[in-house]
Amino acid sequence: MVLSTAQSSIQDSIQKSVALKEINLDNDDKIKMFLNEYAEGGTLQQYLKINRLSWSENINLCVQLIKGVAYLHNIMLAHLDLHSKNILIHYGNIKIADFGSSKILNNKMSTNNEAFDPVTLRLEISKDGLREKPVNGTPLQYIKLYSECWHETPSKRPTAKNILKKLEFLEYNPVFLNVSPN
Fold it and tell me: How many domains would you assign to the chain?
């Protein structure tokens, strides 16, 4: 497939979300080595412990993550073990790492069935890793979106493309406020 310069540039920027590099060690492509890139920010889990992110920073990381996963699915690869310790941060940019559990998909497999949904993981990015209860200050549209990603039937969860579209138009107000005394 021939890509235009703009398409190629977009593809390159999305590929940068994946921290896996292939190196051929011989001329016949028989011996390959896969390396993860260095990420100065550490894992997403470590990064979130020391950085307080604004909602625009949260959404930016979420969009990067979803684009990275969409890229993997586009090349027919399911990560299957994506969590905050397998996502690296390099100067504010997401790098998906640790492909030890990944599987090559065939045309009959659905990427919606992957044991990962980016918005659920993104909830960990947003505030304290809580899943069942919304966190004070969370935009209501965001709560609705990540709740849709928890649907028990994977085929009824929004696709990465739909999530990106909703995030693009996400309004930061109104927000959830828990007024109970606990």
Answer: 1
